[in-house]
């Protein structure tokens, strides 16, 4: 049903505000997860970006990355993945040390979380942040991912290496990886 | 139409059962204010989860592959399809892999076909991004990024033109955009034509005639209360229209129905021209007889003049104009000198 956008806008904002309020007020983990997932899904629609920024939802998602609850981390990362394509939200994430918070979860055991993290890092790549995002540790990680069993992870990592990194950076990372493998290959003295 | 795939391409190997294929349990503990139209699981959709590759499970094994592909084709061009015999399936059901040309088509197909009955079975439709190639993934991300950027820019422009305080933000966004996206700008331009948004639905033919040209309808995306766009459409102002892609989402139906009702209402006031023409034809057949009798009478008028042929109101200006034109012509022809009524002259038979 087509609705007049200007009439719908305050309703939408209020609804999102209600969600955020519920998240902050409720003690139920289950309710928090549901609301978090809702907000992350709303973040998929560019129309909502402005409202979510106003409600400080990017910060909320970033806060989730330090939580113990794995669902919180997964949904928060998903939300960041959705938000980070918007330039305004991207800047907020960068201002709040988003790169290091996200990078910490590249070793997360949940595949969805890792996939969201890799995509978010790609979205956060700007001329200013490029050097931080393509530091050797991350490039090596992506190189390992590009050899992973999971096709989705392989593809994403390959896109990262091809689009965000220079050939030199990839080569350096490859050399370092080989060096590590060689060290592991040395048999222990008997 | 799509052709069955041969197995030469690397992405068509034996499938793994992935967690994101599984149907999760529906969430039953949502408070009313954020319950959606349909009960759904707690799940976050990102661009990584979506794909133009769909897997359809639960297809009854009764030889309905063609019908299934035809159903999919309603939502967009299907590039390739094949049965996934290796994928674990319930007894008496089959699994199919469908590759759409566009992600938006896959999105629409998933939304409309998931959990729907099909030839006695219930379909489960899920995205299978693991079938993408690196290039597929790259294009998917680029399309998505371009779309979000464009939306941000148009919002910034709208805010700027309103002269609100967000004008600084707009210029900031524009500056940042210029900084970051030399590559993206080039990609943006090239992606514009392949932009993965939903084309407007073409109006049915009978509506076009009285109401003029198709108008692309500005239907905006509407999420449900849980934020999923998988019950909504994003409209595109692109000139390309895929004739096959008929969208059957509920919002769209409401809107189309609404439009059709208003169109139908005005159509019923407008009588088809054919019935008017029939009426006119009948009148014309009657009119020459009358004018013949009138013209026959003007030469030696005996008795009262016959009344003028009644002027008909055909409830339509153009037809009235035409009718009066014909009437006038008939009068002119009838009053012209040397006019002789058309009579059937029977030649006297010669008696042999």
UniProtKB/TrEMBL annotation, chain A:
Listed InterPro entries: ARM-like, ARM-type_fold, ARMC7
Database matches in Gene3D superfamilies: Leucine-rich Repeat Variant
PANTHER family: ARMADILLO REPEAT-CONTAINING PROTEIN 7
Name of the protein in question: Armadillo repeat containing 7
Organism of derivation: Nothobranchius kadleci
High-level lineage: Eukaryota, Metazoa, Chordata, Craniata, Vertebrata
From TrEMBL, chain B:
GO biological process: mRNA processing; RNA splicing
Superkingdom of source: Eukaryota
Biased composition (Basic and acidic residues): 174-190
Ranges of Polar residues composition bias in the record: 163-172, 317-332
Annotated GO MF terms: RNA binding
Claim: RNA-binding is one of the keywords in the record: yes
Record flagged with keyword Metal-binding: no
Annotated keywords: mRNA processing, mRNA splicing, RNA-binding, Spliceosome
InterPro entries the record matches: RBD_domain_sf (IPR035979), RBM48 (IPR039599), RBM48_RRM (IPR034264)
GO CC terms of this entry: nucleoplasm; spliceosomal complex
Function: As a component of the minor spliceosome, involved in the splicing of U12-type introns in pre-mRNAs.
Family to which this protein belongs: Belongs to the RBM48 family.
Protein name, as recorded: RNA-binding protein 48
Organism: Nothobranchius furzeri
């Amino acid at each position: 049903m087509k609705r007049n956008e200007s009439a719908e806008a305050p309703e939408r904002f209020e609804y999102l505000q209600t969600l955020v309020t519920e998240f902050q007020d409720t003690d139920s983990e289950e309710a928090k997860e549901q609301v978090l997932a809702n907000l992350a899904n709303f973040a998929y629609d560019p129309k909502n970006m402005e409202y979510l920024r106003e409600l400080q939802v990017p910060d909320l998602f970033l806060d989730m990355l330090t939580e113990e609850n794995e669902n919180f981390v997964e949904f928060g990362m998903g939300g960041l993945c959705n938000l980070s394509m918007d330039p305004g939200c991207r800047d907020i994430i960068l201002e709040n040390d988003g790169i290091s918070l996200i990078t910490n979860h590249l070793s997360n055991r949940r595949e969805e979380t890792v996939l969201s993290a890799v995509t978010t890092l790609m979205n956060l790549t700007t001329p200013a942040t490029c050097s931080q995002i393509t530091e050797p540790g991350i490039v090596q990680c992506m190189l390992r991912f590009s050899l992973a069993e999971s096709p989705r992870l392989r593809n994403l990592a390959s896109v990262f290496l091809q689009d965000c990194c220079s050939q030199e950076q990839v080569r350096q990372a490859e050399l370092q990886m080989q060096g590590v493998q060689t060290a592991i290959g040395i048999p222990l003295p008997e | 139409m799509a052709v069955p795939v041969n197995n030469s391409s690397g992405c068509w190997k034996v499938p793994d059962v992935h967690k994101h294929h599984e149907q999760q349990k529906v969430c039953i503990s949502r408070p009313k204010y954020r319950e959606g139209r349909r009960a759904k699981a707690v799940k976050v959709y990102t661009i990584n989860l979506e794909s133009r590759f769909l897997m359809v499970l639960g297809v009854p094994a009764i030889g309905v592959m063609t019908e299934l592909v035809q159903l999919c084709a309603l939502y967009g061009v299907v590039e390739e399809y094949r049965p996934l015999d290796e994928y674990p399936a319930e007894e008496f059901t089959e699994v199919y892999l469908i590759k759409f040309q566009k992600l938006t088509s896959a999105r629409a197909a998933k939304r409309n076909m998931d959990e729907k009955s099909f030839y006695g079975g219930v379909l489960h439709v899920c995205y299978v991004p693991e079938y993408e190639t690196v290039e597929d993934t790259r294009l998917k991300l680029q399309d998505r990024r371009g779309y979000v950027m464009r939306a941000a820019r148009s919002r910034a422009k709208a805010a700027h033109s309103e002269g609100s305080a967000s004008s600084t933000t707009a210029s900031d966004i524009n500056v940042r955009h210029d900084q970051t996206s030399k590559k993206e700008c080039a990609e943006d331009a090239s992606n514009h034509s392949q932009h993965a948004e939903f084309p407007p639905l073409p109006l049915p033919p009978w509506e076009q005639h009285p109401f003029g040209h198709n108008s692309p309808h500005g239907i905006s995306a509407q999420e449900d209360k849980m934020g999923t766009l998988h019950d909504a459409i994003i409209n595109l102002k692109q000139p390309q229209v895929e004739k096959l892609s008929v969208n059957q989402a509920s919002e769209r139906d409401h809107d189309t129905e609404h439009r059709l009702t208003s169109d139908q209402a005005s159509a019923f006031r407008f009588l088809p021209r054919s019935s008017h023409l029939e009426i006119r034809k009948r009148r014309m057949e009657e009119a020459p007889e009358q004018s013949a009798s009138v013209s026959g009478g003007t030469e030696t008028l005996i008795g009262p003049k016959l009344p003028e042929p009644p002027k008909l109101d055909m409830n339509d200006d153009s037809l009235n104009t035409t009718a009066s034109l014909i009437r006038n012509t008939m009068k002119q022809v009838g009053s012209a000198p040397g006019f002789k009524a058309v009579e059937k002259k029977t030649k006297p038979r010669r008696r042999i």
